[in-house]
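In the current project phase, the collection of sequences with tokenised folds has grown. A representative record is quoted in full directly below:
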Amino acid sequence: AMNRSLCQEVAEGVPPEILAWPKPEWTAEGMSQLSASLLEADFLLATAQMAAGRYTEAAERAAQLVERPVVVALPELRTQAGILASRAYRACGRLADAAQHARAAAESAQDVDPAILATALIALLSAVVMAKPDANVTELEHRLESLIDRLDAPDAANVAWALGNSAFAHGDLALGLTWHARGAELCDPRIDARAWARLRQSTAFHLITLGGDFELAERLFDECRGIITLLGNAGDLADLRLVESHLRLRRGEPGVAAELLEHLALEATALDDVRLRGEVMETLASARFALGQVASAKVALRQAAAHFEAAQAPDRALAVWHRYAEME
């Protein structure tokens, strides 16, 4: 493992006192203590844990990577590790921790590739908006906008996608659709079909939840459904079912939506994502309320609020409690 390209690249410019290399007689246990010996493997393992829905494990591994001396010594590696940690913490619902790691990654990325800086800023914007939808993120948005023309098409598409999500979170449907449309123009399904499908799913979700063009939402959902089912990871599939449940609610099928959500609640528990559990239970409350099951809807809202509190999203929890009070 020590001769892999990443390890050799990592070693360039690192002071000898920071980086130690193995000798033929060293054991596997001894090598495991080296600062670079398992660096590449840990990056890959954390990424694999993310794809498998083991978000807390991925977050803990990525957070440990951030502290490695060899990573601390190199801004690009420090940024990449911070981005990975932020994504993992966001996935498991620890949004404040996600924002902290993303902010540190963005600070480390000032003098590196603009694409890496953009990825760090996207991670920060996503974590902040997810925790507090009405947060003032104008400065972050402007920084991302200033980068978009310096990026290749896939990275620029991710920036447009993130800016659209931020606009949606602030209730601006028209601006969100404009940014998502730009992202769709830049995202080539022949290069990354999964990203193409997930962007369409995201647009459909916001059209449904913000009262936009429902026929367009249905068409986008139909376009993305097969690809996500085929190529998506565990989190993608859970998001797909959540969007479908919202679609069923808008169609006036609360019973079907409730059944979907009850199954998804079990899957979300296995996914180790408290934020997703909050989203599921809040949506389930809407389905139960539409069915006239007020007491059961209130139980779901209490659970949703608890999940959002655990996800370090107090504003989301407070909004749920307001809904709960309105059902009294």
Remarks:
- The longest helix spans residues 114-131.
- The mean pLDDT is 86.
